[in-house]
């Protein structure tokens, strides 16, 4: 891997890790259930990006499978929570 590519991937990884903080804040403090749902969905998408970047930097195809599994669980969880919030119940 070229040094430029490694630096670019490292900066992207740092940027994604920093973006976890406002997403976690939205999940914890969110004024409504819809805000918390959006925060959880964004949080899992950022985590998938982190796992994929780690897979690229470490040349590990196993981590790509982990990211795909995380995407599947995230989709099912988001649908379940959206149905729960859409039914009028709050958490």
What does this structure look like?
The chain is mainly alpha-helical. The protein has one domain. Helix content is 87%, strand content 0%. The chain contains three helices and no strands. It has helices at residues 3-29, 33-58, 61-86. Helix 1 (3-29) packs antiparallel against helix 2 (33-58) and helix 2 (33-58) packs antiparallel against helix 3 (61-86). 3% of the residues are buried.
Task: Name its key features.
single chain, 91 residues, mainly alpha, 3 helices
Summed up:
87% of the residues lie in helices and 0% in strands. The protein has 91 residues and is mainly alpha-helical.
Mean pLDDT over all positions: 89
Shape annotation? elongated
Strand count, sense and closure of the main sheet? none
For the termini, the CA-CA separation is: 47 Å
Number of separate domains: 1
Structural class: mainly alpha
Number of helices: 3
Strand content: under 5%
The residue fraction in helices comes out at over 70%
Number of strands: 0
Give the H and E element order. Answer: HHH
Compute the CA-based radius of gyration: 16 Å
Uncertain residue segments: none
